[in-house]
Design a protein that fits this description.
CATH class: Alpha Beta
Strand order of the largest sheet: 3-2-1-4-5-6
Structural class: alpha/beta
Strand content: 5-15%
Order of helices and strands: HEHEHEHEHEHEH
CATH topology: Rossmann fold
Number of strands: 6
Radius of gyration: 15 Å
CATH architecture: 3-Layer(aba) Sandwich
């Protein structure tokens, strides 16, 4: 699987991510009556997103839920396309690509559950965290060695950048 997946990763120009179960571990915390929900994001995943963007790979987010926490975190990471409240992820993915010169074969998608099946079947590189549901793992070209919210996105970033010959850690430059 990895050899074929690495070949597919060479063509990736955009990474599209689900949120709950991918960028988070899927937990949702609710505060009092006037507080919004709270989500925990992994800083390693954030650095992976920044590395993708810094290397010319667009990053977009599609999520069925709507959350101020997602808006804030994606803004901090300079993710320009964030579609929230989008239960039909297939339509959302097509909408993103309508305004782009990127084709479906140049997209990597990471999802973890049944609503992600359609976009996973559509893209060039279908990926998921290690704790994705079996139906998603079964169709994935590449399965991250880590679970959602615990570095799966960083693993994907490192995998894609490595396949494209851009995998040298930027830290080597700082030594």
């Amino acid at each position: 699987m990895t050899g074929r997946a690495a070949q597919l990763a060479e063509a990736v120009r955009m990474v599209v991510l689900d949120v709950d179960g991918v960028l988070t571990d899927g937990s949702i915390f609710y505060g009092g009556t006037n507080q919004s929900e709270i989500k925990a994001f992994n800083t390693k995943d954030g650095l992976g997103i920044k590395r993708l963007i810094d290397n010319g790979i667009e990053v977009a987010v599609i999520t069925a839920r709507s959350s101020e926490a997602v808006s804030r975190r994606m803004q901090e990471l300079s993710v320009g396309t964030v579609l929230q409240g989008r239960g039909n992820k297939r339509e959302a993915l097509l909408e993103i690509l309508e305004a782009s010169t990127i084709s479906l074969s140049e997209v990597a998608y990471m999802g973890d559950d049944l609503p992600d099946l359609d976009p996973l079947r559509m893209v060039g590189l279908a990926t998921c965290p290690s704790d994705a549901v079996p139906a998603v793992r079964d169709i994935a070209d590449w399965v991250a060695p880590l679970p959602g919210g615990r570095g799966a996105v960083r693993s994907l970033s490192d995998f894609i950048l490595g396949a494209q010959g851009k995998g040298a850690p930027f830290l080597e430059q700082d030594r």
